[in-house]
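Project standup — Tuesday

K.O.: blocked on the structure for the chain from last sprint. Re-posting the sequence here as requested.
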Amino acid sequence: MQAQELSPSSAMPLERSHAGFEFAHAPNPVGVAPDQSDQLVIRGFIIHLDRARDRLPQVERLAAKLPVPSEIIEAVDGRTLSAAEIESVYRRRLQKPYYPFAMSMGEVACFLSHRKAWAAIVEQGIDAGLIFEDDVEIDDAFHAAFAAAKACLKPGSFIRFPFRMGKEHGQCVLSQGETNVIQPKRIGLGMVAQLVSRDAAIRLLEVTSVFDRPVDTTVQMSWFTRVSPLAVLPGGVHEISPQLGGSTIKSHKTLAERLSREVLRPLYRAKIALRSRRMI
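H.V.: unblocked you, prediction finished:
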């Protein structure tokens, strides 16, 4: 894969990125001073599964609303992954606390799709990527949220736009009007929208060449990734999967599997919360 330098003026909207999973380190990471935020090169990446054609109008609406030039990242299709491809990237019980569930093919594909977006940031040599999943809508609060996130952007930054309010709490690192950027005590779940710096993308690619749990639960483990996500509240984003026909990654589970998850999920989350508190 070759790195391609882009500027906002030269970026074509909704061009498809075919970034793979490998990457080359971009030279000279850019430091971010407060008065340089308007000079940052930020590009939007919308992760979209090609066979989910009924979502394409939503992708186009989202791209038109985003404050940066955007392109589609063609999502990895879990239906097409071979057993060998899955074995090359997925291993159970790699990191503590151990994730108690086996990943579905859809979850593996979702993780690989986010890795493609991270790789695109590195390949293109931009300062940061604004990564969206394709079942997301933004509201009027998003532009203030993005401005606050950009004000906090520096090498190594990973800034989340949560779609569930009231789930994350922590120290406020920036306040702009009604928008706050916080350092969460426990990082929330979901990967619907995030601003990812090039340094953070490099680090995440390095530590996730093989993974043992879904991408959002991996991002929770800042002690492992050495990336400490911030969160913007309100995030100005909404997950609208039900309006678009439902999730493209969830799999059907038996009653026994659902009951097991009801027991094991809170235990696992308690372990993550305990480890997160130790990091503060």
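K.O.: great, moving the ticket to review. The longest strand covers residues 42-48. DSSP finds eight helices and eleven strands in the chain.
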